[in-house]
């Protein structure tokens, strides 16, 4: 039987049964025994057909023994299964006991937690009871207040009558307001018409912008052609110069040969003259000897000898005459060659003069094209409202590594990036940047000022202008803005701007313009504003490094920023402003660090307010020029600042970090710009977020150890260059207005 059910319902496993009588050990099929089969097998009696047939009896007995063996083997297998099941159940029981122990532990933990919860609930219940008592007290107070409210309600009802009268009066006011609303609606229609006209004007500006782009592209193409023609002309000019040099060399050789031949001819003529003189002398002697020979026949041998000498000298004279003729022919040929070279030299000289004229004309066209490109670029930048960025690289100082291998800054020479691109090498990787202008270390203060002179002129025209210098400490910011004291050629941008403004003011008087100028100077030191023009030294600095007087920054509705109680001085000449600058420089906070002997420890803000009035046109312009020298960013690991220098460094880095946050917000055009995070950004708010023409100088150092700081400065400058702060507007009024000095 296979798979037969037992009494308890479990299927017993089957196993193979071997035929014990088989010599090959063949197997029977699987056999299953039940309780009835075992009992039948045990109580079975062997039946025989014949009592005396022993063979049959033996076979039946063997068969019975085989079945008994199979049964025994089946019992053994069953016993093994039961033992396996028992072991399995034992393991399961152990696991269950372990699980029960874990459950008991968890139950104890839960019981403790529940006890804690119960304690907490009891505490809460006590607090709730206290709160309930409090609420009951408040309820009694509320009932009392309800009584008071009822009394107040009666008072309100008494006031209702008065309000009714007020309502009638309000209705009259409502009618008046309706009339005003009608007037506002009419004004709204007018504003809509004005808005449509502004849209038309905006579309016109867009067309002008597209035309300016086309002019720029055309100018770039013409410039490329002019540069190529200049290159070709320079090549031709160089070739002609080489030819001219070769001609001069060959002419010098010919002249030397001519001089040698002339000298040789002169020497030959002298020798011929000597020979002729000898011949004449000999002939005279012969004649004399012949005369004597007639007298004396003894001298015949001497005469013959003299005649032989004379014939030899005649032959020498003939040879020398032939040499003289050949030399004269050579001289004629040399003269002809010299004449041809002189003619060729004159022709080449005329060609060179013509090429020089064409080269000068092409350079003038190139300069005019560059001026037009700058003008169109500035127009586009103003229409876009971007912050313009100039980059200036200071020269290497004595003691700094100036080898070719250590150079980390290079300048691209392509037409697109010429004068505007800068490449920085760090750890084998080149970082490329493009700005509005890049000044190489050899650029002078005059070269830098020429690029910003038109922007400074905008302040006289009624615009708000802001120029500020940014960079790490020791990168040349103060030198760019202030220059070197006592050296006229190295004057900074601030004195040069003032000279230009006073000169232009003088020249505009003939056109009816009169200007009034006011100056203020301040510094932000450790997040505190200091008045640098104050005559009270205690108001400028205190022993603790904090100004005792508070200068508050105020913004008005017109977008101007005022510093309360700040000293404002009327100025009438550039010398007066120079005196004020020297006074402010003496009051400014400077200190020595490991990176800079004279490090500016504060942000310096120079403000010039310009108020102009034209008597003939009755126009009044209001311009502001802000020139700012920011303190340099620095790393404590390099500057080695301690004590007061450490506090200054932390304040400087914090304010510059706030400036970076403002630039990030402006670049992403976020709704909230964190101008209030520092005094610096709050003071610069009209320059960064208003209608100001803003220019930033990013100053970097070429020293290889400062490559990391230079890369950070260039990346920050690139983000500033991408910011759009709005289009600047000219501030012109029909009548003059009296207003206070502001930062824009």
TrEMBL record:
CDD domains: KISc_C_terminal (cd01366)
Kinesin motor domain boundaries: 386-723
UniProt entry keywords in alphabetical sequence: ATP-binding, Coiled coil, Microtubule, Motor protein, Nucleotide-binding
Residues holding ATP: 471-478
Transmembrane segments: none
InterPro entries xref list: Kinesin-like_fam, Kinesin_motor_CS, Kinesin_motor_dom, Kinesin_motor_dom_sf, P-loop_NTPase
Coiled coil: 75-222, 258-379
The UniProt record lists the keyword Coiled coil: yes
Superkingdom assignment: Eukaryota
Pfam families from the UniProt entry: Kinesin
Family: Belongs to the TRAFAC class myosin-kinesin ATPase superfamily. Kinesin family.
Protein name per the record: Kinesin-like protein
Organism listed in the record: Camelina sativa (False flax)
Taxon lineage: Eukaryota, Viridiplantae, Streptophyta, Embryophyta, Tracheophyta
